[in-house]
Specification:
Elements lengths: L9 E4 L2 H6 L3 E4 L16 H4 L8 H9 L2 H8 L1
Antiparallel strand pairs: 1-2
The chain binds zinc ion.
Length: 76
């Protein structure tokens, strides 16, 4: 899925490893981790490098199955 197709309130996140392996995640504010639970401790290299494709299958599955409210509550 392309990051430009993300719904309002969702953004791409990826550390260096994610950029290299094309497995960028999805996150939403105010969560401190990605949808699949990866802590966002590093710089958002996917954003800096202009990565366009969300590659994390776990994030995509959660994104497609849950509402924004469910995701935020699950991350608090
Ligand atoms: Zn993920």
């Amino acid at each position: 899925m392309k990051k430009d197709d993300l719904k309002n309130g969702f953004w791409i996140f990826g550390n260096k490893g994610n950029v290299w392996s094309n497995t960028a995640h999805i996150f939403t504010s105010p969560a401190s981790s990605t949808l699949c639970g990866t802590p966002m401790l590093s710089t958002n290299w996917a954003k800096l490098n202009g990565v366009k494709e969300i590659g994390c299958q776990k994030c995509l599955k959660i994104y497609n199955q849950k509402t924004l409210a469910e995701i935020i509550i699950g991350n608090l």
